Amino acid sequence: MPNRSKAPKIHEIRDVVLPRPLVHRLDNGIPVYEIHMGVQDVLKVEVIFQAGRPFEAVPMVSRATASLIREGTAHRSGAEIAEVVDFFGGTLSSQGSLDHITVTLYCLTRHFDALAPLLTDVLTEPSFPEDELKAFINRNKQRLQVDLTRNDIVAYRLITECIYGPTHPYGYNSTPELYEALTRDDLQKHFRDHLIGANCQIFVSGKTNDAVISRLNAELGKALPQGVPSIPRLDGMGAASGKLHQPHSHTVQTAIRLGRRLFARDHADSNGLFVLNTILGGYFGSRLMTNIREEKGYTYNIYSSLDPMQYDGYFYVGTEVSNEFAKRALDEIYREMEILQKKPVGKAELGMVRNYLMGNFLTMLDGPFNLAEVIRNYLSEGLPLESFEEMVRTVRQIDAAQLMELANKYFNPSEMWEVIVGNPV
């Protein structure tokens, strides 16, 4: 019997390997990645299309298409679709990101045969009802009106617009006018042009079996037209750096966003910057959190983030502070970046960050749905799965000198956008 009075020994995580999915091809060429894990009779099917903002002919059309694709088809109303899914205890959702439109079905494995035709119906013959489009426009206009009263949201909108420019797919912001301009014809055209087999990947995870793959082929392998892969349009670009202060009435806090344009996840410096960002502000024990929250008490929360998209990416620091502390908080952010440029990260701190990130990697691979998410993130961006192991190697092997070199390369104040929203004293 184990001695419960003694804590188990702590072992260093030496390696993390990403399990590989089984790969199938439907009759129309769509790749299907199967992650067969778990003992529960549960299935997740994600159908992902390269159909986000870089492929838009009309601003906001990808988001509207993603939101309304399951609100009615040529054969069923939105209510009838929801009723069928509920009857079988499933969940059908759709969402749009900057680069993709994703339709996701959760169900018991034994019920997939019954729900597969419904999934096909949604993905091939959505009707985009006019009344649902009007409701979507009204909901989002009202939500936007509320969001624009929050200086943190205003600051986020401004810094992405500053970095990429107001016409770039990653830089433009939603407005009431853009919502009002959407038409049913816009959604139908976006659907016809981009939600096709050539832009599609399917990820199946959970308790899968051969019957599930066969059923997918019988449905989507026949119904989805192959078409021609869409070409992204990435027109427009903002200035390299600058400063913007926008007053915001009736607020006792100032929102700070500080950042710059970077690159997509396939860049040679991406993995190293991931580690550097974690040290600066990427976890609760980061330098920004320790200094500006715990020691100075200027804010409740401060963080830094790397946001990689499929075709680009950016870095930013975000926080909200009392108006009287805004200038001091901003100075401390720059100071922490400068320290990383001039002083090597200590062995103990780097070891702690390594352990934290290696533990996160294990959590990311815990269970079929988490594993499917990791695999999907890489493959949907056109990256090989070996990129995950490369990230793990970087976390284990990067040294203080390499981190300092990256800090000097990317943390220069003259290359940053500084956005302040509020009324700093």
Structure description:
By secondary structure, the chain is of the alpha+beta class. The chain folds into two domains: 202 residues, Metalloenzyme, LuxS/M16 peptidase-like (Cytochrome Bc1 Complex, Chain A, domain 1), CATH 3.30.830; 180 residues, Metalloenzyme, LuxS/M16 peptidase-like (Cytochrome Bc1 Complex, Chain A, domain 1). It contains 15 helices and eleven strands. The chain has a six-stranded mixed β-sheet, with helices on both faces. The chain has a five-stranded mixed β-sheet with strand order 7-11-8-10-9, sandwiched between helices. Helix 9 packs across helix 15. The mean pLDDT is 95.
Q: In brief, what are we looking at here?
A:
By secondary structure, the chain is α+β, with helices and mostly antiparallel strands. The protein is built from 15 helices and 11 strands.
Offer a few descriptive terms:
15 helices, 2 domains, 425 residues, alpha+beta, Cytochrome Bc1 Complex, Chain A, domain 1, 18% strand, 5-stranded mixed β-sheet
Q: Tell me the β content.
A: 15-25%
Radius of gyration: 24 Å
Structural class: alpha+beta
CATH architecture term of the largest domain: 2-Layer Sandwich
Largest sheet: 6 strands, mixed
Q: Helicity range of the residues?
A: 40-55%
Q: Uncertain segments of ≥5 residues (pLDDT<50)?
A: none
Number of strands: 11
* First-last Cα distance: 64 Å
